[in-house]
Amino acid sequence: MSLPAAPTTHDVLDAVGAVVTSTVAPAAAEIDRTGAYPRADVDALAGAGALGLLSAPEVGGAGGSLADVAGVLETIARADASTAMVVLMHYAATSVIEPHGPEDVRREIAAGRHLSTLAFSERGSRSHFWAPVSTATAVDGGVRLDAAKSWVTSAGEADSYVWSSRPVEADGPMTLWLVPAGTAGIAVAGTFDGFGLRGNASTPMSADGAVVPSSARLADDGAGLDVALGTALPTFLVGNAAVSLGLMEALVDEAAGHVTTTRLEHLGQTLAEQPATQRTFAALRTRVDATRAFLTDTLTALGSGRPDATLRVLQVKAVCAEAAADVADGVMRLCGGAAFRKELGIERRYRDALAARVMAPTTDALHDFVGRATLGLPLFGGA
Amino acid sequence: MSLPAAPTTHDVLDAVGAVVTSTVAPAAAEIDRTGAYPRADVDALAGAGALGLLSAPEVGGAGGSLADVAGVLETIARADASTAMVVLMHYAATSVIEPHGPEDVRREIAAGRHLSTLAFSERGSRSHFWAPVSTATAVDGGVRLDAAKSWVTSAGEADSYVWSSRPVEADGPMTLWLVPAGTAGIAVAGTFDGFGLRGNASTPMSADGAVVPSSARLADDGAGLDVALGTALPTFLVGNAAVSLGLMEALVDEAAGHVTTTRLEHLGQTLAEQPATQRTFAALRTRVDATRAFLTDTLTALGSGRPDATLRVLQVKAVCAEAAADVADGVMRLCGGAAFRKELGIERRYRDALAARVMAPTTDALHDFVGRATLGLPLFGGA
Amino acid sequence: MSLPAAPTTHDVLDAVGAVVTSTVAPAAAEIDRTGAYPRADVDALAGAGALGLLSAPEVGGAGGSLADVAGVLETIARADASTAMVVLMHYAATSVIEPHGPEDVRREIAAGRHLSTLAFSERGSRSHFWAPVSTATAVDGGVRLDAAKSWVTSAGEADSYVWSSRPVEADGPMTLWLVPAGTAGIAVAGTFDGFGLRGNASTPMSADGAVVPSSARLADDGAGLDVALGTALPTFLVGNAAVSLGLMEALVDEAAGHVTTTRLEHLGQTLAEQPATQRTFAALRTRVDATRAFLTDTLTALGSGRPDATLRVLQVKAVCAEAAADVADGVMRLCGGAAFRKELGIERRYRDALAARVMAPTTDALHDFVGRATLGLPLFGGA
Amino acid sequence: MSLPAAPTTHDVLDAVGAVVTSTVAPAAAEIDRTGAYPRADVDALAGAGALGLLSAPEVGGAGGSLADVAGVLETIARADASTAMVVLMHYAATSVIEPHGPEDVRREIAAGRHLSTLAFSERGSRSHFWAPVSTATAVDGGVRLDAAKSWVTSAGEADSYVWSSRPVEADGPMTLWLVPAGTAGIAVAGTFDGFGLRGNASTPMSADGAVVPSSARLADDGAGLDVALGTALPTFLVGNAAVSLGLMEALVDEAAGHVTTTRLEHLGQTLAEQPATQRTFAALRTRVDATRAFLTDTLTALGSGRPDATLRVLQVKAVCAEAAADVADGVMRLCGGAAFRKELGIERRYRDALAARVMAPTTDALHDFVGRATLGLPLFGGA
Fold it and tell me: Are the C-beta atoms of residues C160 and C181 closer than 8 Å to each other?
């Protein structure tokens, strides 16, 4: 399947679907087992136009919306959430690079030849990404970055990093930089051997006297948090919600397959014919449907500029992450011992599904924002 | 405020809003206290065109959709869920009478001069309304009904009852009748002194040798369950969901008002300024928003004839009822001792909110249906 | 049944059981309906020796332990939690009066002729009873008290109040006073019309220039919080837990009675014969048994001076209160529409059961204490 | 550390503690990583007298009680739940072999030279172990066994299997056999690559024309279920509860260590100093304490022959398994991204903790039994 020269978002979504079937799905279990980075998946998705989805047509991209982002990510996540997370972080980075980055990088992204990612969370402030403690210092020839980043998706694999630090001299909490892979002084600092999302190279990274040119700055010194909140954050939150939804759909599909095909020989019936199974399954299926309705509503609000769009964006990741954790737990329980074995793919998705609620901003942090917003208080009022 | 001669659904919704403010809201606490039937509310709502909302324009009605029903019921329920339940049962009855009932009754309903309701649940089969044990027997001059109905909203207050029984002679589980108020042998059998929804006269009724003419039959003998499932049930489920949503909105509004206006003097801050309050409030507010998204999605599915519309209808009451119970409990907890007193109106809504999950079809019964439907099994396969 | 001259705790427990059967249980529904104070219950329980249970034998009391307190309160609470709460607050007050109060009052309490209670919570600091904002000022002839107490059980009914205020001149957060009923300037400030525990006269009280003699002080000026934490709090927490347990036992008993005696005629079986009912009931029954085990363990720890006794005491009210709320909700759901009507007594206990978790110290406040204690932090470190 | 010739249960518990520290704990992470059988752990525990704990003194055992079993298993499970599960299944088997097995095997078990296990669950009847579909047929020279066992702990590693089948000719649901390792026709049928408890070799086993002597029968033909319910089941349920408790203790310890030592640099405080962390931690710590109280109560009931002892035994595994799942989930959430990495040991215990609720009898199955027992219905009345 080859893409047209100027692919529409429809073309991309179709091509992604094909790549997921041919490439992503078959590799998922092994990527989970070994924790290897899904390089072949990323290459195939690049070929399907996925990396340029959010890029503007003027640089050769598909000019997609967050609804398109959600569609692509859900499709990938149904097969492999690790790969979906790699693409999601690329979209979050792209949403900063598009308005603030250099045209050559934008063109490379649009053409599927450049993978980017975010480097936000830090050892010192942990999941409070809005309060970096790492530094940027003006030096001869540019700006020196020093940092201990705690989790960077595609660490050592991406072509660039959208990197947060304290400002050089401005007031304000944060400045953003576009740090190219290979910058001296930037290093992957460890490996990732985790519970879930094992294939996205989410390792710590360090910057130790890394120097970037002043032109690497994305937006004004000190303006980084506004940019992050205005572009990267909505993209991340909506995309993360879509990944959770894809995982849930896959989990409930696996559960349906299991209970309709497994028989209790001594009773002469399938598990699905047991009333308690039906009732439990219904609650899980309904939870997924209700979660999808909320993501749909969020995308509708964004698409039509509804006044509550920003609130929905702040809510949607938590709604989907909590639902994914609950549904995954319910499916594990419903499928019992069978789900405990790796054959069904349920336990892998379960482990992947628990990642969303601890990824920054966590559910608690989002609730803090939503609570202050809906009670008429300033957004960054608490600890 | 007076309605035009041929009111549109918009006119009705506006007029209902005005009546709720002027009449329904001020009376709600007292209706709850005494358990009196909200006769003045019903009369005022009739004057606002609410009773004819679902009636066809050809008999003088507004020709409203289930989306209109949901809008009207949510508006009423924000002020008084008891009154909303009375109107809901009238809509459920109307949805049967419109296609199967006599034109004179339809015209009276459209004109706001006739209130109807359902008489389904029975002592013998309890919440399993699809399995009546009451009887209809052919006698000279018509059909004799004998029954012990367990819960009839507007019992002794409505102008007619859409009444279920076993068939006269057909196979099939149920036949429906339009029983006029005042039919000899029909009696209210007890009073209702309940936990919540105290003002809707939900008492038992008995039929002891009550004779109705054969023409009182709604649809064919034995076809009652199909009619109930095809018309009354969707109306009831969607409308009940809207009542739950109205209650939730009112509860969260009350909570916001309480925490933003109540001060902890020794700490010099309002309750809303406490981080734990913000977090808890956010979770409640988000739950309401997510629940609304599901009702919206259900109405969209119905409006556009989406293939999943029937499934959504089977899900929506349970989604909203469970959310209402959880949100009400969370608001009670958040507002602590203050919510325990009657002044805030929180404890009344809490009691009202718990009704939905036990009203037939209960959450469990709906999950049974949804589970069988989504696992590819026959709908009435279990106990 | 008449008590011996020097009743043992056994005698008291037996006599209380008899009074509960003869007097408390028959009156419970009506007390709930009207919100009347259970004066006849209190008198009968006084006659059974209940008021002197905690009093030392040297003043004529039964010298009971907290285990005895728990036994008496659970027994009363199974029949009427409002009455149990009145007795509980008397015990909490007695535990302060016994070591710090005048002998004449102690003798009156032991003899069953004096009912006391706590007056701690205030409008200004709400459930944070450890931070009173009310004042005590040295004046000619004694000490002047000014306060707006928010919830006082047995307000206007008790013979004395163990009353908190800020110290007269000492450092420290609190001083305690024994304020006799009838003190000029002390008044009941409102009525209580609440969701649950409707019969314990839990109204606000005000002190407006009320003067008590200096001798009314219980323990040193400024030492009130230590006394409250050391005596009244453990008594209240353990006793409150016992009340929750009694409510749970009554609720589960009612549920068992309902499901084993109610038939589904169309299926020819009782509700108890339905597998889903059995499963749900088991979870409720088990929750009650597990909750009892924790109270038993707490009493064992107290009785044997185990090092974790203080921690258990800080935990036990929250464990029992949360369990009571959950079990009550589960019983309401299990018994469906029947529980919604007042006949079964389930909805009354449900309303009563929700009180415990909002009574100070609330579950959240207790968790704050327990969290700090078990993480090695100072007990009053947060907000 | 060497054991005395006739070790007391105290000697065993001490020796087990030492072995856990020296051998079990250091190996746990690697056993989880590779899924290897903990052979060195089992040998060391055998040397500590653990295998003979339940054996009667007359055959050289320590004559331990179920309380001793619980103590040993909790100690092992704090370090490695896989190893604890191996020992637990040995105890369950021993409890059948002691009253019904041959003396030579009993002596070998007591001496720590024979490891046994149960082979109950089957592919055909899945977790309904009380309904085997496998067969035992009288043949020349003994009895022929044919079976597809679905989960056997220590499969291929144990020295014998307590094996269930349908009876040879008696009525009744089950007959038990002691099948020696190495019996021709018995084979391990697959490997176990699972979510948790990865080191206990819980693989399927098959019997294909395996012949055992008639003397291999344990108790009468057809009496197997009574024996299983009377001996193996209580041992398994209590021991499984103890394993869950050990896991919970380890999880909460890890959480306390993490939050007290991890700093938020930008706020200048540890995670433990955050109020929300304290509150969450308290709820988890309290849940563990409450769960321990229930296990203690169960052991007290067993030890004193209390009438409710059998009920407690039927409840205790579910109480502890559900608590373990909840506490593990709460710890994962509390410790966020850090818990997601393998370094802390939290995610391993989390995976291990989820096993208990799906091991037969599952929580649902136990609730079915408890529900019927406490509602006065026959124990095996449902499906």
Answer: yes
- Encode pLDDT of D113-125 as tens digits: 999 999 999 988 8
- The closest CB to that of B368, out of A279, A294, A297, belongs to A279
Peptide bond into A378 cis (omega under 30): no
Q: What angle do CA D207, D209, D212 make, to 5 degrees?
A: 85
Residue C285 has pLDDT above 60, yes or no: yes
C215-256 pLDDT per residue, tens:
999 999 999 999 999 999 999 999 999 999 999 999 999 999
Give this complex's ipTM.
Answer: 0.94
Of the pLDDT bands very low, low, confident and very high (cuts 50, 70, 90), residue B7 is confident
Distance, in Å, from the CA atom of B360 to the CA atom of B379, rounded to the nearest integer, reads 16
Helices (H), chain C: 9-19, 25-34, 39-47, 66-79, 81-100, 103-110, 224-227, 233-261, 275-304, 309-340, 346-353, 355-358, 363-374
Using CA atoms, how far residue B336 sits from B49, B262, D17, in Å, is 40, 12, 47
**C368–D275 C-beta distance less than 8 A:** yes
Write down all domains in chain D, each with its CATH number in brackets. Answer: 9-114 (1.10.540.10), 119-220 (2.40.110.10), 225-374 (1.20.140.10)
Burial B68-79 (b: 16+ CB within 10 A, else e): bbbbbbbbbbbb
Sign of the C-alpha dihedral, residues B132, B133, B134, B140?
A: positive
Lowest-pLDDT range, A128-132, B27-31, C360-364, D259-263?
A128-132
pLDDT digits (tens, 9 = 90+) for C14-69: 999 999 999 999 999 999 999 999 999 999 999 999 999 999 999 999 999 999 99
Residue B263 φ then ψ, to 5°: -110, 145
- pTM, two decimal places: 0.95
Residue C383 has pLDDT above 50, yes or no: no
Across D96-110, D146-160, D334-348, least confident range? D334-348
Q: Are D276 and B279 in contact (CB under 8 A)?
A: yes
CA distance C197 to C178: 25
* CA-based torsion, D315, D318, D324, D326: positive or negative: negative
Distance CA C77, CA C82 (A): 8
| Cβ atoms within 10 Å, residue A309 | 18
Do residue D367 and residue C282 have CB atoms under 8 angstroms apart?
Answer: yes
- Beta strands at C186-188 and C263-264: parallel, antiparallel or unpaired: unpaired
**Closest-CA residue to B87 (of B220, B214, B239):** B239
**pLDDT tens by residue, C292-322:** 999 999 999 999 999 999 999 999 999 999 9
Q: Dihedral of CA C297/C303/C308/C314: which sign?
A: positive
- The number of beta carbons lying within 10 Å of the beta carbon of residue D67 is 18
Which residues partner with C175 through β-bridges?
C165
The residues of A whose Cβ lies within 8 A of any Cβ of C are: 275-276, 279
Distances (CA, A) of C84 to C23, C51, C54, C80: 13, 12, 15, 6
Express each pLDDT in C161-199 by its tens digit.
999 999 999 998 999 999 999 999 999 998 888 899 999
> What residues of chain B have any CB closer than 8 angstroms to a CB in chain A?
256, 259-260, 272-273, 275, 277-283, 285-286, 289-294, 296-297, 308, 311-312, 315, 318-319, 364, 366-372, 374-377, 381-383
Write out pLDDT tens, residues A319-331: 999 999 999 999 9
Helix H segments across chain A?
A: 9-19, 25-34, 39-47, 66-79, 81-100, 103-110, 224-227, 233-261, 275-303, 309-340, 346-353, 355-358, 363-374
Closest chain D CA to residue A362: D336
* Burial bucket for residue A103 (CB in 10 Å: 0-12, 13-18, 19+): exposed
3-state helix, strand, coil in chain D (%, to 5): 55, 15, 30
Under a CB-based contact definition with an 8 Å cutoff, are residues B225 and B205 in contact? no
